[in-house]
Design a protein that fits this description.
The protein has 17 helices and 8 strands. It is α+β, with helices and mostly antiparallel strands and 497 residues long. The chain folds into 2 domains: 115 residues, Uridine Diphospho-n-acetylenolpyruvylglucosamine Reductase, domain 2 (2-Layer Sandwich), CATH 3.30.43; 362 residues, Cytochrome P450 (Cytochrome p450). The chain has a 4-stranded mixed beta sheet with strand order 1-2-6-3. Helix 7 runs antiparallel to helix 8 and helix 13 runs parallel beside helix 17. The chain starts with a helix and ends in an 8-residue tail after the last strand. The relative contact order is 0.14. The structure holds protoporphyrin IX containing FE (HEM) and 2-acetamido-2-deoxy-beta-D-glucopyranose.
Length: 497
């Protein structure tokens, strides 16, 4: 409340000084902005869904809003997505700079990490290295698979202890996802109540609230207040502590590493720096430090929330769950563990996992893009430096792209012969050059986790739990409303003890 009033006052003041927001010529349509704060008053920031729905209906697939003084274009639907993110990728693959998140993640000016790096040489080099390293983990796929399976064993132990009892699986899946990424980054597994682990889970939770809340808006909108002792300083303090913790990890790795024998992402990066010698280009220890945070941040909530959606849908669709289990039992008969390669023999399970990702809609507005030059989209002109929000939900639910766009239905990914097919509109990881860098890891995690769990357990929606609510809690990453589930041990398990 205080924040809103403060915002309004400052806005009025600045209006007198600076004049009004204006839509550039040929810009996509949208509501009239108020000076400085733009269209913020039209949005309920806690849950802008209904307001945005209304605007999208009113103004069409490409429309604009002023988020504070910043002109922003929202794009909806396959056609606009393809034009912007694929055909004109170079124009649309920048990232907004100089916002609170940028300042939080990068401790040094030349070390922006990857997620928020602008479309430039540094980003290209770091991304290429990241993809290579995650794809092969620098050590071969098997190590990644083994790390994931080891973590799954721990999840299964905990689930075994909860057989018959109602439990909320949120903490469990968040810890597991965080552990898997930590394993890749630092080769470290943490107890589920370890201090390091709790620090980062808390860091992400607390600071996202600040970044996405009113104080984040104020920081981004009114640069002159940035040095004042306001609540966003708490976020900066937490990120500074996290920087120190990552630097400690880095110091330990440097002491214990054997060059050429990487154990994890840090070692791979240090090897790459050795290889480059004096010609390090964009590689630096500070950049590594930001990169680590990026991967940890981007890889935790996303996968955990997708798992929570998976269990929500499976426990409420027992026939679908059972059909997965039959396929799993058949393919894995006599084997100890599942491997990622088994996925080609499991078209139904694949269809279910993809349908979970489609309906989970985990990152609904992707990560914001920014135009790198004056350009055009669907006949509108969009100047350089315009924030672009790709609305992934709009494609994942688009009529005409799916057999059953508005309902959970694995048939969306199956042809008449029961084979797995992936429609073009399946893009929970976005498309184009900025597409999720962790897709490979995420898909491996989801597959191994879901198959292993369904092989061993049946997930049940408790009788007294009421009707499931499939509407997610809105956020940069969406998550299902908190729920409880029960697990039952399956009887027929061969080669799996
Ligand atoms: C189900 C899980 C996941 C989903 C749905 C997801 C989704 C996304 C989306 C929508 C983007 C934005 C793409 C764009 O800007 O157009 C993104 C970017 C990114 N993701 Fe993921 N992600 C997932 C898991 C992961 C994991 C496990 C990692 C880390 C290993 C990761 C690392 C990244 C990075 C580094 C970027 C930035 C790429 C760039 O800017 O070039 N993600 N992800
Ligand atoms: C994104 O698309 C969905 C589905 O079409 C719609 O409900 C939502 O309002 C859109 N969001 C924005 C920001 O336009």
């Amino acid at each position: 409340m205080f924040a809103s009033v403060a915002l309004l006052l400052v806005a009025v003041l600045l209006f007198l000084v600076l004049g009004r927001n204006r839509r550039p010529k040929g810009f996509p349509p949208g509501p009239e902005p108020i000076p400085i704060i733009g269209n913020l008053l039209e949005l309920n920031l806690e849950n802008p869904i209904a307001d945005l729905n209304r605007l999208a209906k009113q103004y069409g697939n490409v429309y604009s809003l002023f988020i504070g003084p910043r002109p922003t274009v929202i794009i909806n639907g396959m056609q606009a997505f393809k034009e912007a993110l694929v055909n004109k990728a170079a124009d649309f693959s920048g990232r907004p700079q100089n916002l609170m998140v940028n300042h939080l993640i990068q401790m040094k000016a030349d070390a922006p990490g990857v997620v928020l790096a602008d479309y430039n040489h540094l980003w290209r080099e770091q991304r290429r290295f990241g993809l290579m390293t995650l794809r092969n983990f620098g050590l071969g796929k098997q190590l990644m698979e083994r790390s994931i399976l080891a973590e799954i064993q721990r999840v299964m132990k905990i689930l075994e202890q909860s057989v018959g009892k109602a439990m909320n699986p949120k903490q469990l899946f968040h810890s597991a996802a965080s552990n898997i990424i930590c394993q890749v980054l630092f080769a470290k597994q943490f107890g589920y109540d370890d201090e390091f682990m709790k620090f980062f889970v808390n860091l992400f939770r607390e600071t996202s609230k600040i970044i996405n809340g009113r104080w984040g808006m104020i920081y981004d909108t009114i640069p002159i207040v940035r040095n004042l002792p306001l609540p966003f300083n708490k976020a900066f303090k937490m990120f500074r502590t996290s920087y120190e913790k990552r630097m400690e990890m880095l110091a330990v790795s440097k002491k214990t590493r054997v060059p050429g024998k990487p154990r994890h992402f840090i070692d791979c990066y240090l090897d790459e720096m050795d290889k480059r010698g004096d010609d390090a280009s964009s590689f630096s220890e500070d950049q590594l430090c930001s990169f680590l945070l990026d991967l940890h941040f981007a890889g935790t909530d996303t996968t955990a929330n997708t798992m929570l959606s998976a269990i929500l849908y499976l426990s409420n669709n027992p026939q679908i769950q059972e059909r997965c289990q039959q396929e799993i039992d058949q393919v894995l008969e006599g084997k100890d563990d599942v491997s990622f390669e088994c996925r080609d023999q499991m078209p139904y399970v694949q269809a279910v996992i993809h349908e979970v990702q489609r309906t989970a809609d985990t990152v609904p507005l992707s990560v914001f893009h920014c135009t790198t030059k004056d350009t055009e989209l669907m006949g509108y002109s969009i100047p350089r430096g315009t924030v672009v929000i790709p609305n992934l939900s709009s494609v994942l639910n688009e009529e005409g792209q799916w057999k059953s766009p508005h309902k959970f239905n694995p048939e969306n990914f199956l042809n008449e012969k029961g084979e797995f097919v992936k429609p073009e509109a399946f893009m929970p990881f976005s498309i184009g050059p900025r597409m999720c860098l962790g897709e490979g890891l995420a898909r491996m995690e989801l597959f191994l986790m879901i198959v292993s769990l369904l092989r061993r357990f049946t997930f049940i929606w408790p009788e007294d739990a009421g009707e499931p609510d499939y509407n997610p809690v809105f956020g940069a990453t969406q998550t299902p409303k908190p729920y409880t589930m029960k697990v039952q041990l399956r009887k027929t398990i061969k080669g799996n003890n």
